[in-house]
Amino acid sequence: MKPILIFDTSGINCIISEQFASTPLLPAIQSAYLIRLTSTSVEEVLADPNRERRARLLDTCRTLMRDGDVVLPFHELISRHFLAFQNDRFFDWQRVPLEARDYRREIAFRERITDELSEEQLRYADETGQEFEQIYADARPYFLEIFERHPELPRPSIEEILQVFMQPGNVYWKMGADLCRPVCGQAPDESFVRSFEDACPPFRSLLTALFLTQHDRVIAERTNSELRKLAGRVDVFSALFLPYCDIFVSNDRDQLRFLRKVVGLIGGHTEVVWFRSFMDRIGLGAESRINVSTR
Asked: Residue 277 and which of 99, 137, 149, 175 are 20 to 30 A apart at CA?
């Protein structure tokens, strides 16, 4: 069977660059891989304010998904997994339906994507991104005060944080319960969350990514400029998609660092690859010496 490949939005942006217009890039990819698009990438493509560029991106997405599929948004996936686990004693996360049919239709009929819809999508992305960052900006001063009172103590690593937070009754399992709360109306008990986390790698990936985000933004000692370069909301929630592919390709260095760290923490099998390295792999490396925007 072909290995499963996911491009993030920065990777799709590279594909449509002029440098690849005369290369057999798409046929080469499709012949060797089963391609999955994420709903997150589709939403980012829809939010592109440049009408011509948006149309080219949508055409590329349609070509990429010809023999593949589009994965549901993270919250819908978590809901489906949770309900399946709750109702099936023989739960297998890989058998839970993942196809986002609405997104496939949006890609197939790109003429329905108006500038107004694109503006609305971009506005939503900006608002949710700001809300996401504000959560950690509000928490950071509290932790800084603690570290200032104990300057002799080194900042803990993410591995040390997880070792503590994953102890019985600690915050890792409470956050996991909070992620499940919207599905069942109340937070499940810790034993259920532990079992679910163990049986569902996408849930484990997302939960780990959220703790890594907290460590990077709130606990690690970083300058303001370094904080601005950290993986954003979309990058963080993209961790959920890691178990759904063998190779995840990005041209965003901050996201690469983040997702590689998540894979290392969960012991996942997914290879997170820089776009240029992936071009080398499929024999188009000479064409990939380019300087393209990551967004």
From this structure: 99
- The pLDDT tens digits for 204-235 are 999 999 999 999 999 988 888 888 888 889 99
Task: List the 271-274 sheet strands across, edge first.
Answer: 69-71, 34-38, 4-7, 247-250, 271-274
Which string of DSSP letters, residue by residue, matches 141-189?
Answer: HHHHHHHHH-TTSPPPPHHHHHHHHTSTTSHHHHHHHHHHHHHHSSPPP
CA 11 vs CA 59, 157, 236, 248, 266: distances in Å: 15, 30, 16, 10, 24
Query: Which helix (H) or strand (E) is 273 found in, with range?
Result: strand 271-274
3-state secondary structure of 249: strand
- Decide if 268 contacts 243 (C-beta within 8 A): yes
Rg (CA), the chain: 20
Whole-model pTM: value is: 0.89
How far apart, in whole angstroms, are the C-alpha atoms of residue 213 and residue 192?
24
Q: How distant, in Å, are the alpha carbons of 5, 38, 41, 165, 171 from that of 161?
A: 31, 30, 31, 6, 10
Closest CA relative to residue 249, chosen from 11, 27, 9, 2: 11
Q: What are the φ/ψ torsions at residue 293 (nearest 5 degrees)?
A: -65, 145
Q: List, for residues 165-195, the tens digit of each pLDDT value.
A: 999 999 999 999 999 888 877 888 999 999 9
What's the CA gap between 25 and 15, in Å, rounded?
A: 8
Residue with tokens 């890989």: 94
Residue 266's pLDDT band (cuts 50, 70, 90): very high
